[in-house]
Amino acid sequence: MRNRKMIIFDLDGTLYGFKGGSFKQSGVYKKVLLNTEEYIVDKLQKNKIEAKSILKEILNEYGEKISIGLEEKFKIDRYDYFNTAWDIEAKRYIRHDPRLRRILVKLKKDFDLIVISDAPMIWIKRVLRELKIENLFKKIFSGEGNIRKEFGNAFEEIVKVLKIEPQFCIVFGDQEETDIIPAKKVGMRTVLVNKKTKSSIADYTIKSIQEIEKAIKYLNF
Predict the structure, then answer these.
(1) 2-16, 46-60, 137-151, range with the lowest pLDDT
(2) What is the share, in percent, of the chain residues with pLDDT greater than 90?
(3) What is the distance in angstroms between the CA of the first residue and the CA of the last residue of the chain?
(4) What does the H/E/C string look like for 37-66?
(5) Where are the alpha helices (DSSP H) in the chain?
(6) Which end of the chain is more exposed for a tag (fewer CB within 10 A), N or C?
(7) Domain locations along the chain
(8) Which residues lie below 8 Å from residue 220, measured CB to CB, with a gap of 6+?
(9) In this predicted model, what pLDDT tens digit does every residue of 14-37 receive, in sequence order?
(10) CATH of domain 6-16+96-218
(11) Cα separations (Å) of 119 from 86, 135, 187?
């Protein structure tokens, strides 16, 4: 296995913030739902009322895993769905900190940088492009397939795909349940990014991603 140290970043809520405070408050979620209704109208030849009803049923049964619901119930290709429903310009919804690129460029000299997100690739790439950091990452892991953070198998997949020992990885994320706990389970170092709460689970807590270097130094990584 390779032993060059690796920094793994969650995307939404970690490398950037949403305008409005959260994914749902930003308007992105609402836009995805509207696009999904239009997609159902087109793909299943339904009227708008029927499409709303179908989407409501899927949300009740599958939660935010809409792609899986459409695939299982209607044999709809999830990648086609993602590339339509998530065809959204990121600029309108995200907050951009120009200091981020400078920090990551510096880190890239000594570490391999990875992005992991349960969002589809089309959204990830648009966000990274808007943040002007799309060329800084060795690998991007998206949530289009059946390997996702919410399923608890994403960090194991990183170890497998990149052939790296977990102790050479440090994970930065804003959610304990999907970022910190599963990463620690496979033996990775972890840093929670949270302005208000200090984690008792993560190895370290920072208030913003601008404190990356502080965390790395503290953990002697």
Answers:
(1) 2-16
(2) 90
(3) 18
(4) HHHHHHHHCCCHHHHHHHHHHHHHHHCCCH
(5) 23-26, 28-44, 48-62, 66-74, 78-85, 99-108, 121-130, 154-162, 181-185, 212-218
(6) N
(7) 6-16+96-218, 23-85
(8) none
(9) 999 998 888 888 899 999 999 999
(10) 3.40.50.1000
(11) 9, 19, 24
Tell me which residue of 124, 107, 102 sits closest to 115, measured CA to CA: 124
- Both tokens of residue 221? 């990584």
Q: Are strands 112-116 and 6-10 parallel, antiparallel or unpaired?
A: parallel
Q: Where are the beta strands (DSSP E) in 134-220?
A: 139-141, 169-173, 189-193, 204-206
Q: What is the pTM (predicted TM-score) of this model?
A: 0.93
Alpha-carbon distances, residue 29 vs 64, 78, 117 (angstroms): 10, 17, 15
**What tokens appear for 61 in the block?**
């049964």
> In this model, does residue 148 exceed pLDDT 90?
yes
C-alpha Rg value of the chain to the nearest Å: 18
Q: What is the pLDDT averaged over residues 192-198?
A: 91
45-57 pLDDT tens trace? 999 999 999 999 9
Written as one letter, the residue type at 207 is K
pLDDT value at residue 45 = 97
Percentage of the chain modeled with pLDDT above 70:
99
